[in-house]
Amino acid sequence: MNFKDKVFLITGSTSGIGQGIAKALLEEGAKVVINYAHNEENAKETKELLKEYQDKTLFIKTDISNEKDVIDMYKKIEEKFNKLDGLVNNAVYDKIFAIEELPVDEFRKELDVNVIARWMCIKYAIPLLKKSNVPRIINIASRLGTKPMEDSVAYCTSEAATIMLTQCCALELTKKYNIKTNTVSPSMTLTPFAKKSYTEYEIKQTAMKNPSGRLGEVEDIVNAVLFLLSEKADYINGENLNVNGGILLV
Question: What is residue 192's predicted lDDT score, i.e. its pLDDT?
Fold first, then answer.
């Protein structure tokens, strides 16, 4: 897979899966735009982690649910790199509520960040993606986009919508501009956030339910994303790649 001097934007990329994708692409010779919304500490840690690639990285603080911010982000990318070879919509927002306890504003916020913001990032990426020979869009969704879970109605709904967003983009943008769009849907992945959010017992119990006997590692998701961003995945379009060890079979 040849990523040398290609340019990629990864939203929500100062921690977890997004950071892993950014690091892997930089190691393969790519140039990476690292986006974050508010966590300056994570941004500082990521800059330190990737300091050897500082000439190939562009950090942009952006609220991707704000249209003006998104437009400004792409102006900065154009000024710096003048093109884009791939967009990975990785940023996500989620809070757990039972259906009857879920505030309307919370539901709207999840839809704003997990659906509308992803669509806006795609919409305003198109002029730059059109300059690429191998333009790619990857939306990071979740297994909960195809299998519901209690106390997660807003998240499940938004991730299901993301999968359909992918399919609509794949149908329309491939015909117009040869932009291939796919979804990657992880199950629970051992990111720093997950390790803080769940006890060792909860993690072990969840792993035992998986046919593979373990939870996902960041590298598992990174490998899938890099493949779909590559020329080798040129005939894969509109698909939802579940990277979950087989948990949907249970």
Answer: 86
The answer to whether 109 and 93 are in contact (CB under 8 A) is yes
Q: Which amino acid is at 230?
A: S
Domains of the chain are 7-189+217-249 (3.40.50.720)
List the catalytic residue out of 53, 155, 198, 201: 155
Q: How far is CA 64 from CA 6, 38, 129, 145, 190, in A?
A: 22, 11, 18, 21, 25
> Whole-prediction pTM value?
0.96
pLDDT digits (tens, 9 = 90+) for 38-97: 999 999 999 999 999 999 999 999 999 999 999 999 999 999 999 999 999 999 999 999
Q: Is 106 exposed, middle or buried (0-12, 13-18, 19+ CB in 10 A)?
A: middle
Instruction: Answer yes or no: 53 catalytic.
Output: no
